[in-house]
Amino acid sequence: MNAPRSHAFKPEAAKALDDHDLQHALSKIQDLLVGGRRRAVDALPEFGALRDAGAAIKDHTIVHLDLYLERFADEVEKLGGHVHFAATDKDACDAVLKICRDAGARTVAKSKSMVTEEIGLNAALEGAGIRPVETDLGEYIIQLRHEQPSHIIAPAVHLGRAQIEEAFRDNHRNLPDGRKIDEPAELLAEARTVLRSQFLAADVGITGANFLVAESGSAFVVTNEGNADLSMTLPDTHIVLTGIEKLVPTLDDALVMLRLLVRSATGQPATGYTTLITGPRREGDLDGPRNFHVVLVDNGRSRLLGSRNQAMLRCIRCSACMNHCPVYGAVGGHAYGWVYPGPMGSVLTPNFVGLHEARDLPNASTFCGRCESVCPVKIPLPQLMRNLREEQFEAGDVASSQRWALRLWAAFATRPRLYRMASRLGARVLRQAGGRRSKLAKVPLAEGWTAHRDLPAPEGKTFTEQWKRGVR
Length: 472
Hints:
This protein is of the alpha/beta class. The protein contains 22 helices and 12 strands. Among the domains are: about 20-30 and about 40-300, NagB/RpiA/CoA transferase-like (Rossmann fold, 3-Layer(aba) Sandwich), CATH 3.40.50.10420; about 410-470, no CATH class. This is L-lactate dehydrogenase complex protein LldF.
């Protein structure tokens, strides 16, 4: 497993807020991903009904996960493939390493897969003398820079063109000094030139899977670059490495999920490449792998079954929650300290690496509710984060200052007259302090907020005063 640094969220977030290049890069998300999703959803009147259907499909599959796992494994093996169940990250890496050794692999072509990041597969391959090559452009750039992805579908979204050009010049030794490569088309052409030979040299191809279909033993892989198709068809051995929660019962179910995934992830009706692979090459096929393996990773997922956080297993890794999250939009993905950032990471990471290790993440939310409102499978992310906060409090894993603050707030909240008096007085003081600007540059006990932005001063009547007057 990639070593988590989720306990360092607060200092990493503070560093990110002061990083002007990062702030500029993060601004791209609003137009490209948030705007794209909005336009795609507006163009599909039945999107709300699809969300209900998608949530129901995932809930049904989760309840019967053992049965669908067995059905999927049986179908893959009927086709001549092999299924490997991995309880832990180490088991998953060991399974992949054995397949690679049996194939005599020296080079592995990898398509983008968050599960490979989760289990630390690249480090395991390198430790065994096998060279992994990321073939997704964003992942390739991240690999050159020895970084983790900062976003699950746009791994290099935190980087500018100059940083990408620098990574190419540092690693592509045959690149002439005078050749310009700071435009997207030029960067893409340079990457394609280098990666083409890697596809041809690879002994094994590794991809993730967006969905697994139990009734047919098939895997859906969705990309916009086509690199996954080359990774799964050119090498003699293809490994699908993915989580056990990616299962759906039927092809019809998978098509429902695809309509939700693509619009939520990139704002497209369909991606450039949607590939369905079903087993190894058969007689008469012109291409495809002779050896086909599926490694199904648990690594903490089964602990969610039957828990208050079970709904997180619906997640289809579309990134809509993080794209719309004001916290992610301010600090980016690296501040979260592991492979899953944003609201989905604030639930997944504590469940996968431990709540104490990821103690800041359930609190890295304003609870504005945007994540739940855009989730294509209707995961109640704010409630799941509340569940984790409650677990922290019950375990005593909360700073004493927070406990005293909660006790103080409870003292007022349980005494309505005192609460109304204090809220009126506080609003009046803050209003006066805000002056003509109606903003406050500094507020006692709120330095974390005002260090990077002004706090709007209260305006008008308090909520309880307006409620009493019948304002709804």
